[in-house]
Amino acid sequence: MKHAVMKPWYSLSGFIWQTPFLMWIAHWFWRWPNSLPVPGYAVAILGVAAVVMAVRANAFTWTEEKVWIVVAAALCFVEIQAIRHDRKIASQEQADIISGIVDSVKTQTGGDSFAFITLTGPEPALLTFNGFSHPSGPWMLVSITSHGKYPLRDIHAILIDDERRQAAVQEYNKHPGGDWVKTIQSADITYQYPYFRPQSPEAPSGDVQTIGAYSIPQNTRKRLTVNFSSLNGYWNEVLHLGLVSGQWRQCLSLLGPTVKQFNDPFIWCDSDWPEGKALAEKDWAGIKQPAPQ
Fold it and tell me: Pairing mode, if any, of strands 152-161 and 114-123?
């Protein structure tokens, strides 16, 4: 009767062959996830381990068999994580590149930046400010301010006074032989400006430029509209003026130029004119918001 030959529990040769593979795996797991190898590295080591296992198959001890299984599983796991990590880095790099391109385009076109017009005063008739004056009587200073992180280029603005337009139309109706287009446009004031700096730590309120003079309103309330255009699109402003305790106050609302800004109009007001803010909040109530692209 033959006696069964018992395999040794472990062997020195098995330990020597397995130690380098275990050290590689221990190093990767010890410094996880900062020391993940590049994709393909763990598979290459697994290939070497497979050759060693094939050569030593007949000399395996019980423990060596189980350790080789652990080594193979660990190397497969490391390779899968390395592939995922590499794809994550590649996706992030691609996203950064796209973001950089988008940001560069927005820097050239203006992105979601916009500008708005404000009127301040009154100024005396004899005063000249930045080359602007209004000799016929007290006047208000017309300023334009940039808002946003991107610069604006080639800005066009048309300030429309509906009261003046209505008066011009009534006058035209008395003498209908005139130029109708000229009559309509007589209530409009066109402004152009080549470049506006964006908001910045040095200029948190934006780039402010004086662009003209405007007659003092005849009544205690005034509503003006302004149509803007620039390289980044179009936007519209409604400017409310009100005489409060002998001082002119203003409040404005602005729609555009992006779809997001259509859903959330920009509102700016003098803090001591709450009635103006209430008016501004109603400016775009009847406007149908565009669907997101």
Answer: unpaired
Distances (CA, A) of 145 to 47, 116, 238, 258: 67, 5, 15, 18
Closest residue by Cα to residue 48 from 78, 14, 72: 72
Helices of type H across 126-252: 162-174, 180-185
Residue 244, amino acid: V
Per-residue pLDDT of 26-70, as tens digits, reads: 888 787 777 778 888 888 888 888 888 888 878 788 888 888 888
Taken in order 165, 167, 141, 268, is the CA torsion positive or negative?
negative
- Number of Cβ within a 10 Å radius of residue 14: 20
Task: Write out pLDDT tens, residues 137-159.
Answer: 678 889 999 999 999 999 999 99
Give me the torsion for CA of 260, 270, 189, 212, rounded to 10°.
-120
* Predicted TM-score (pTM) of this structure: 0.67
- Tell me the residue type at 93: E
Assigned token pair, 91: 């996706």
